[in-house]
């Protein structure tokens, strides 16, 4: 060890206190995070604790630990650090992540962490706060990079979904052409207006793009040419001229047949690891096939059961080998783009707000166990997008998904490194001066 470590009880290291009651009817809009045993769950107008702070679950979700930078309100399902007793808050956060909280839980039907028992836990920590900060700094560097990757991925996802909405829901390039023609412009003016709508660039910026990057300009122009310059009536309302309406099954297959023999060791995706936003699934593991939904790369998994559907649980399958079949919960609806439409289209349809509203409305069953109906979704009247336009959309959007996957894989590697370092750094086994050497 590079510095002195001392043994003490947890209650001598920090002081934990139960959070505060705050019924929903008593909450008012504001910027203050409300922290439950599962993390930040709501916001309020008043804070109870000055940040930075550290919170862990007392009832409900036990074992998760949260570092809160700003002032906050810890709810009564939590324990928060009332007094750090001069210790580093960030180190305290990482240290509390190493504790097995179930050892200190009550033996009730609904177990909860007993604060007094937890305070009696025997621990060993660096006496030097500087050493605490060095340990926290090593781990924080990894967490900061993971957080940066998550932020980039959220941006990539938002960009791709914004393009889908602009092209296939709001018809912005079509409407830009119509507005230009109605203003007395020429077909060339209409095309330029569509290019502006697609790229977000001004006329001057497009002129500069043409001069400096003629190939990019030509691609943008070709994309704009794919959009018509008029609308037509349909059973769905006004749609771009030349586009059609049919059942959604013309675009998407629902629950296509897959073959995976019972007992086969295959990648398994649990419902808890399906994201509520973004497309990246977490923690795919190998498990013997029993009873479940089967899928391959290019499929989209839509949670069909309440509350998972309402919460947005959806994943794009891009984590298998080319010849692998994966499996998971029976509560997935598998969606796959019909040929010749690009595979990514099924994912962006599954994330579309209109589709999700229909999926929720299709749910049947007893309260708390309602499920969306795949047959009803397949029979939805839906706008049939021109194939060439979907290919162009995929050319633009698919790289966003691939880049997000790359960031996700990097974050998994960083998480593995952090998780391997955590117990070694927090036990004194690993010297901070040797990390990264």
From TrEMBL:
Query: DNA-binding among the record's keywords?
Result: yes
Where do the Type I restriction modification DNA specificity domain residues begin and end?
3-158
Q: Which Gene3D superfamilies match?
A: DNA methylase specificity domains
Q: Which Pfam families match?
A: Methylase_S
Q: Name one GO biological process term.
A: DNA restriction-modification system
Q: Which GO terms describe its molecular function?
A: DNA binding; endonuclease activity
The protein's UniProt keywords, in alphabetical order, are: DNA-binding, Endonuclease, Hydrolase, Nuclease, Restriction system
Instruction: Give the protein's recorded name.
Output: Restriction endonuclease subunit S
UniProt source species? Marinobacter vinifirmus
Give the source lineage, highest ranks first. Answer: Bacteria, Pseudomonadati, Pseudomonadota, Gammaproteobacteria, Pseudomonadales
């Amino acid at each position: 060890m590079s510095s002195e470590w001392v043994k003490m009880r947890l209650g001598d290291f920090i002081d934990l206190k139960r959070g505060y009651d705050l019924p929903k009817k008593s909450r008012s809009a504001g910027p203050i995070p409300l922290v439950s045993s599962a993390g930040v769950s709501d916001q309020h107008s008043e804070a109870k604790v000055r940040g930075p702070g550290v919170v862990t679950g007392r009832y409900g979700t036990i074992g998760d630990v949260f570092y809160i930078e700003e002032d906050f309100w810890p709810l009564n399902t939590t324990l928060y650090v009332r007094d750090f007793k001069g210790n580093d808050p960030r180190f305290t956060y990482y240290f509390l992540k190493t504790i097995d909280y179930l050892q200190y839980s009550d033996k009730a039907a609904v177990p909860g962490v007993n604060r007094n028992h937890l305070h009696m836990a025997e621990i060993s920590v660096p006496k030097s706060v500087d050493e605490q900060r060095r340990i926290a700094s090593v781990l924080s560097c990894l967490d900061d990079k993971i957080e940066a990757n998550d932020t980039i991925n959220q941006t990539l996802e938002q960009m791709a979904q914004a393009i889908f909405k602009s092209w296939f829901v709001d018809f912005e390039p079509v409407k830009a052409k119509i507005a230009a023609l109605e203003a007395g412009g020429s077909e060339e003016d209409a095309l330029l207006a569509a290019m502006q709508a697609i790229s977000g660039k001004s006329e001057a910026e497009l002129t500069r793009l043409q001069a400096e990057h003629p190939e990019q300009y030509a691609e943008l122009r070709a994309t704009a040419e794919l959009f018509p310059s008029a609308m037509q009536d349909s059973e769905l309302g006004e749609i771009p001229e030349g586009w059609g309406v049919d059942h959604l099954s013309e675009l998407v297959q629902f629950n296509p047949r897959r073959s995976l023999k019972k007992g086969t060791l295959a990648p398994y995706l649990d419902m808890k690891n399906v994201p509520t936003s973004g497309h990246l699934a977490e923690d795919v593991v190998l498990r013997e096939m029993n009873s479940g939904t089967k899928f391959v790369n290019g499929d989209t998994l839509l949670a069909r059961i309440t509350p998972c559907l309402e919460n947005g649980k959806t994943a794009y399958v891009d984590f298998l080998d080319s010849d692998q079949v994966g499996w998971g919960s029976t509560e997935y609806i598998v969606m796959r783009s019909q040929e010749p439409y690009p595979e990514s289209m099924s994912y962006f349809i599954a994330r579309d707000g209109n589709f999700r509203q229909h999926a929720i409305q299709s749910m049947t069953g007893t309260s708390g166990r309602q499920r969306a109906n795949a047959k009803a979704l397949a029979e939805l009247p839906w706008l049939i997008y021109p194939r060439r336009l979907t290919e162009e959309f995929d050319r633009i959007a698919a790289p966003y998904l691939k880049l997000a996957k790359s960031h996700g894989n990097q974050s998994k590697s960083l998480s593995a490194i952090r998780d391997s370092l955590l117990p070694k750094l927090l036990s004194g086994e690993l010297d901070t001066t040797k990390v990264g050497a």
